[in-house]
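Summary of Year 1 activities. Much of the first year was spent building the evaluation harness for sequence design. The harness presents a backbone, in tokenized form, and records the residue chosen at every position. We chose the following record to illustrate the format because it has been used consistently in internal testing since the harness was completed.
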């Protein structure tokens, strides 16, 4: 099995964990490659074998027959990993070196157990849907998809924006707010959740539209089918606004006409057999725990 290790930043406090990961991968006889930028950060810090390969980016993801990509970090690193995997179908395993970690769900203390489970085939692949953004002006280059969410936001401290929103061409609402979030089920536990949106199970085939600090208090998040096309017209006192796809951001103006639909491909997540979405939300959100006990 060919494992590619992806991360953005090496932190000294993670040295022992990362060394342990390379040791167990060697012990279990995995073929291992490391993304070049990360390799340059760790080569003087981590003892790795001479047979470790160097991986140069998304253009090699299919040609080198990668079986699984390991994302080392938090959810932000996992989201960055999706821009490397793209539509290749290569599954991602999120190893959590960050904090909350809904996507990077394997905690650092279970790294060795996770590798051994992979070796024994004790895992499943879960497909996660993505958003695709269309615009009358070019935005985000080739990376017009998002695993978590797309947002339209006011810029800096300017006044609120007005976002006229349509579903399949039919007018839904004019949102007077600081912004609007369109989230996948995966993204429902992210920014949308912090703005009062609901948690949606991964296979629900829905989008959720969540306003950010709406001026009208009777405006609430709404769930729609992911077969819908959602389009927007943005207005405000400011000349520019912000549009994001996951952690990527670009400036837009009222001249931009935007539309969101379900992406044509999915991202595959590696889940260990003893792990589930329900377990993740119970643990991450402290459900069922009483601080008094």
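For this record, the design step produced the sequence shown next.
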């Amino acid at each position: 099995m060919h494992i590619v290790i992806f991360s953005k930043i090496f932190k000294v406090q993670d040295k022992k964990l990362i060394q342990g990961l390379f040791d167990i991968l060697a012990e279990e006889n995995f073929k291992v490659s490391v993304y070049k930028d990360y390799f340059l950060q760790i080569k003087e810090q981590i003892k790795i074998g001479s047979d470790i390969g160097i991986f140069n980016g998304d253009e090699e993801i299919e040609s080198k027959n990668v079986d699984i990509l390991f994302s080392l970090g938090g959810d932000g690193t996992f989201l960055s990993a999706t821009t490397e995997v793209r539509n290749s179908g290569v599954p991602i395993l999120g190893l959590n070196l960050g904090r909350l970690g809904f996507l990077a769900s394997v905690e650092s203390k279970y790294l060795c157990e996770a590798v051994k489970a992979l070796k024994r085939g004790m895992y499943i692949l879960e497909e996660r849907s993505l958003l695709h953004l269309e615009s009358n002006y070019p935005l985000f280059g080739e990376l017009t998809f998002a695993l978590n969410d797309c947002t339209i936001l006011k810029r800096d401290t300017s006044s609120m924006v007005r976002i006229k929103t349509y579903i399949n061409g039919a007018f839904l609402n004019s949102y007077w707010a600081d912004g609007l979030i369109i989230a996948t089920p995966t993204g429902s536990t992210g920014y949308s959740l912090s703005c009062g949106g609901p948690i949606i199970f991964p296979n629900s085939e829905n989008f959720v539209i969540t306003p950010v600090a709406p001026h009208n208090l009777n405006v609430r998040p709404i769930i729609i089918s992911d077969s819908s096309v959602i389009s927007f017209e943005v207005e405000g006192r400011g000349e520019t606004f912000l549009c994001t796809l996951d952690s990527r951001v670009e400036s837009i103006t009222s001249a931009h006409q935007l539309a969101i639909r379900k992406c044509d491909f999915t991202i595959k997540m590696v889940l260990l057999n003893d792990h589930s979405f329900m377990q993740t939300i119970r643990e991450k959100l402290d459900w069922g725990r009483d601080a008094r006990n």
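The chain is about 20% helix and 35% strand. Quantitative recovery figures across the full test set are reported in Table 2.
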